[in-house]
Amino acid sequence: MKDWDDRARFAVALSREAGSLAQEYFSGRSSFRVDRKGAQDWVSDADRNVETLIRKRLAEAWPQDGVYGEEHAPTPGTSGFDWVLDPIDGTTNFVNGIPNWTIVIAGVAGGRTQTGVIHDPNMGETFAAQRGAGATLNDAPMQVAAGRALADGTVGVGYSNRVAPGNIVPVVAALLGEGAMFHRNASGALSLAYVAAGRLLGYVEEHMNAWDCLAGQLLIEEAGGRVEEQDADAMIRDGGRVVTGTPEVFDRLIAMADAAWAR
Question: What pTM, to 2 d.p., does this model score?
Fold first, then answer.
């Protein structure tokens, strides 16, 4: 659909504009306010103001669309198309001067993510996908790392204070037991992008919010990987677990998640 094509291109350009603003804050991070939302859960002036910029641009370009973000109240729409965004995924990294954080923008219609962008300003990398049109890294096609076993690569493992601390232990143990390495960089969105780009074999997390995962899940699907089936509207409302991987390791990661996080 042409409107969705236009939205996908707009999202890429907007992610880069938002990334430039975020980098200005990152360079001067000693001077802005940081508030604690919970244990290891932070929000800064940068998060709030980058989201404000994104919302302003969306309202100007697509005033009938809904907008759901991490730092401000939802804005319901009437068009049937909703934007789901995280102005800075990886705020803990951001406020501590670690350059692993991203701008995340997803577009949802009909209960499915239709477009997704994860922009890493520090590396100058933009991961983008549109449903049915493939996935790209800086406009070049990208693919998951197919054909490799768990023992030949690394799996991202996410954790947040929304779940019990001990719940991550059996997953890490299972990965190590199969000869895999595990990775955590405190930005779930960036880890999902790395799966799509063939850098990680998969990513698992017991609970993620929609703004952290919808874009990355679409990237992985369009790059030839597999993701657990979910309704995007339900994820916006409640969040949920995320299991993704290459075709070769996905079923094994599902089994690990089921064993660790009984439904």
Answer: 0.93
